[in-house]
Amino acid sequence: MHTRRIGDVEVSSIGLGAMPMSIEGRPDEERSIATIHAALDAGVTLIDTADAYHRDADEVGHNETLIAKALASHDRGGDVLVATKGGHLRPGDGSWTLDGSPRHLKEACEASLSRLGVEAIGLYQFHRPDPRIPYEESVGAVRDLLDEGKILQAGISNANPDQIRLAGEILGGRLVSVQNQFSPAFRSSEPELRLCDELGIAFLPWSPLGGISRAGGLGSAHAPFARIAEQYGVSPQQVCLAWMLAKSPVVVPIPGASRPETIRDSLAAAHLVLAADELAELDAA
């Protein structure tokens, strides 16, 4: 597995997005753990989670607990950077709410520490800006957690360029990651990706395969991904991830998976090298 960097930590160039294992439509625990173990066997050293990745109101942190269990039962579990997040909530009715208050973020971090069973979280990210709370206060809480040693590295998610710059200032130059939605169907985070490239901050696209399942649709923007995939004899998902990796060395995609075969297919993208004209075509799709 090729590697990239998040701050001072070397990680696999493609990580595992664990959210599908805990929300609506999730598989049973046995299959989820098998999926995580398959990722580890293939060389994954980055797993993305959040305390809000759960289904019911009484199971906050379901995904974190699941990951901790899977890592503890695998001999490579100690080599993984677990990136979790706080500031998003799920009341249990399928909706998502926000709480970016410093008090909540600090309490959420303590709970995540307990569920993950660690003394310090490898990467903690502020999940989503809360319009009721000044952004500098939310990121200031993350800075405090960093200063206190509760977290080893700090990041932000769902941020715009101004928020990235502000977070970098508040964290005293210690912002190591930005996790934004980015996929062939959702490219509005291009400015954030370019800024991260300029600043040397890891860019973690979430839902990187969003919409790609219909890549073969005639006339759709995804058709080039399907056509190039057919030429190489690989899945459109692999072409999508290889395209992302080629955009910048700071890009570390975190495709979601809930089956071992799905994450194995995604990880093969790390070894797929697309030609310059193919990348240009996909950029223009």
Strand order of the largest sheet: 3-4-5-8-9-10-11
Could you report the average pLDDT, rounded to the nearest whole number? 95
Tally of helical runs: 10
CA-atom Rg in angstroms? 18 Å
Largest sheet: 7 strands, parallel
What best-fitting shape do the alpha-carbon axes yield?
A: globular
**End-to-end gap:** 28 Å
SS content category: alpha/beta
- The arrangement of helices and strands along the chain is EEEHEHEEEHEHEHEHEHHHH
Low-confidence stretches: 215-219
**Strand content range:** 15-25%
Helix content: 25-40%
Q: How many strand units? A: 11
Labels describing this entry:
single chain; 285 residues; alpha/beta; 7-stranded parallel sheet; two-stranded antiparallel sheet; 10 helices
Describe the structure.
The structure is a single chain. The protein contains 10 helices and 11 strands. It has helices at residues 29-41, 62-72, 102-116, 135-147, 161-170, 190-199, 223-232, 236-247, 260-267, 276-284, and strands at 3-6, 9-12, 16-17, 46-48, 81-86, 88-89, 97-98, 123-126, 154-157, 175-181, 202-206. The longest helix is centred in the middle third of the chain and has 15 residues, at 102-116. The radius of gyration is 18 Å and the shape is globular. The chain starts with a strand and ends with a helix. Mean pLDDT is 95; it is low at 215-219.
